[in-house]
Amino acid sequence: MKQSKAGGFSEAIESVNINGNLFNNLPDAVSLMQRALYYGDALFESILIVEGRTPLWHLHWERLKEGIHRLGMVSPPEWSDSFFLEEIKKMNLTNHRLRLMVWRVAGGLYMPLSHEVGFMMTAEKLKSPQFDWLANGIVLGVCDGVRLPVDRFSNIKSLNTARYVQAAMEAQQNGWDEAVVLNTYDRVCETSSSNIFWIRQGRVYTPPATEGCVTGIVRRILLTASVKGLDSFEEKTCVVETLLEADEIFLSNAVRGIRPVRKFREKHLKIEKIKLIHNYILEYISNV
Q1: Residue 159 to residue 156: CA distance in whole angstroms
Q2: What is the CATH T-level fold of the domain 2-125, as seen in this structure?
């Protein structure tokens, strides 16, 4: 490698070996997303497409813009909510899970040579055009092997997801559907793929963003919601024992919707008021 003017080294790649196949340079597709692959220097959004509509896109776009800002990326002037909606329309989707990824363009080592960005969209067909109600609920455990950091990057959806992958693997190994992931202070943060809520005496709670959770799309909707039969939605710090004292627990996710928890550790939970929240989210998506 040659030393650059900035004091680092330029990445003049001369030979590549991918699973035993030799190349003189990185394949074009890999080169395009080099920094995402090398450093996780990228963001993503998982977006619900239902009957050709993107009902939650405005919230995804706001979070994506915030992530671009926090990572010091510079997006092209034409990027806007309407720009991406037009790009989505080109894909002719109906009921799909759309993944939008944004990365910093190639160049540099840890210190990038440019702050410009590129994007890619991929889509997977959904089994159902709307959020399914899981009447029997899911089984939830607590992840022992992972702790999530708490800093200004915790709330964005970056490609630095190794901890979530490990938490999901631990859940599978223990026969759980999901795992609660704690932060570095041993307080409840979120789960391996969703935000977590609990209901106690008619009030609905979720850990605050300052605890290190991703600021989920459905989470954001619920924090300003008014649902008949429930008193309020509030942010509150939480430890595992708090969840064990809950009347009901549920998870929220922008593609999976509301998932009630039937069993947490050895405690069997009611699934009653959560259905009201599920119905509220269905109505929100239909009317937005």
Answers
A1: 10
A2: D-amino Acid Aminotransferase; Chain A, domain 1 (3.30.470)
CA dist 272 and 257 (Å) reads 16
Say whether domain 138-287 belongs to CATH 3.50.50.60.
Answer: no
Cα angle 75, 80, 81; round to 5: 135
Lookup: tokens for 264: 């947490």
CA-based nearest residue to 234, from 219, 212, 244:
219
For the chain, what is the radius of gyration of the CA atoms? 21
Alpha carbons within 13 angstroms on the beta-carbon side of residue 282 total 13
- Neighbouring-strand partners of residue 196: 251
Q: Is the pTM of this model over 0.85?
A: yes
Range(s) of the chain covered by CATH 3.30.470.10:
2-125
Q: Model confidence over 128-175: pLDDT tens digits?
A: 878 999 999 999 999 999 999 999 999 999 999 999 999 999 999 999
Determine phi and psi for 189, rounding to 5 degrees. -110, -60
